[in-house]
Amino acid sequence: MTQPKDAAARRAVKPVICYPVETLPAPNMPVYEAARQNLTKVDEVLAPARDAAVFNVPAGHFFRISSVEGSQVGDLNLWSANDLSEKFYTGKTRALHGTHITTGQQMWSSFPQLRPMATITHDTLGWYGIDEFGGSVHDVIGTRCDPYTHNLLAGGQYHHCCHSNLSRAMGDHLGITAQEAESHVHDVLNVFMCTGFTRDTGQYFMKGSPVRPGDYLEFFAEIDLLGCLSACPGGDCSDKHSSDSAQCHPLLIEVFKPADDSLEGWKSPAMNGYNRSHGL
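Request: output the structure for the sequence above.
Response:
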């Protein structure tokens, strides 16, 4: 294909950040940091290897996802516990914070609510940064491994990919079929997964996660949350996913209550202020 004469000039146009976040309301991290110094564990759930588990977190509580037996990544879905139509919105989270999220950044909910669901308060992998390949951890770019794409690319029927794991767990929790529950399953936060885009072709890649037993990602629940976490069949995702060949491990979810009166000034965020008239 013949390039135009001004091709170099067109490529040289400087990028502009789509959503400058200087006016984005910032979470009060000093209050959260003080509150997390005195926590009482009130619940724990184990997501088995190659399977998923459902958990609840009241607003104003903390929850942690921990590596407990070996290097393992997880796919996280979040909903408002009071309205399943309000769910984690990876696209807007990515647009506001970037392809990977860490301490001080938030998980945003879908329209029309568009409000913080959870704030990351501690990340033991925060040291990783961005590596020489452009990889980083905790991405909001991957959609979750699923049986439909597996069938498209490899054929066969694989049932323990993250989409199916989440669908089964949510079906059990809601008392409906997995087929009915999968309409609630949405794009995920890839907890501990190390990913990026190749520099030459722009393709989504994964590499072995740096997570080790004892590492955890901690969140503060801004609203009442229903969560579902799948321990991915890819294990640490150093080779492949959606298969039974990877070494896989469970993931631990713990819920913590802060001391009374330790969240002075904090309020659960209201729904987005747009009036929804859409110009009519």
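The longest strand covers residues 39-47.
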